[in-house]
Specification:
By secondary structure, this protein is α+β, with helices and mostly antiparallel strands. Strand 1 and strand 2 form a beta hairpin.
Length: 185
């Protein structure tokens, strides 16, 4: 299976409370609302959106990924209010090794409701059943207890700490590695 086979036409996925779908320019206000919150961007690899222009640039980048069949995020739409409240995606995929890594970001207004876990579980299922994956992993900064809980609730197992693994926002950080293999799902 190749990248283009899955991402040339990103499928819409649905769970009990969520629609995972392509992001459009119509999502600018919703994305800016959460991406401009420093609490949301505190533990992620991207910078806080300081203006609508930052958000528009981000969306144009994503739309370009869709057009070119590249790894790209699903927007997380909350069915109850129709708002786009975050993203979930495969941030890395190695088809030859049948492994991938997922990532997610969620509006602070929706933290603590199991939404990120629900989205992560759906992506894990998609990876095992539609991408023929054997292993799916995720990482978080050691300080990010919320993301750690999402990974655990999604069925992932803690594998260890990667010391000084990433350099972001002017510093090196340790990250926790979690994974799930298809036999565990």
């Amino acid at each position: 299976m190749q990248l283009e086979d899955v991402f040339s036409n990103l499928p819409t996925l649905e769970t009990e409370r969520l629609i995972l779908r392509k992001i459009t320019m119509d999502d600018t206000a919703d994305i800016h609302k959460y991406a401009s919150n420093p609490d949301v961007s505190k533990y992620v690899f991207w910078e806080t959106h300081r203006s609508l222009s930052d958000t528009n640039d981000y969306i144009r980048f994503i739309v370009d990924l869709y057009k070119n069949g590249k790894l790209s995020p699903w927007g997380i739409e909350y069915k109850e209010d129709g708002r786009l409240i975050g993203t979930v995606d495969f941030v890395n995929w190695q088809p030859n090794h049948k492994s991938a890594e997922i990532g997610y970001a969620l509006s602070k207004d929706y933290w603590g409701k199991g939404i990120a876990t629900e989205a992560a579980k759906e992506l894990i299922n998609f990876g095992f059943y539609n991408m023929d994956l054997v292993r799916i992993q995720a990482k978080c900064l050691v300080e990010n207890a919320g993301s750690e809980r999402v990974m655990e609730k999604a069925g992932m197992t803690f594998e260890g700490i990667l010391r000084k693994f990433i350099f972001i926002k002017g510093a090196h950080y340790d990250v926790k590695m979690y994974s799930i293999i298809n036999e565990d799902a």
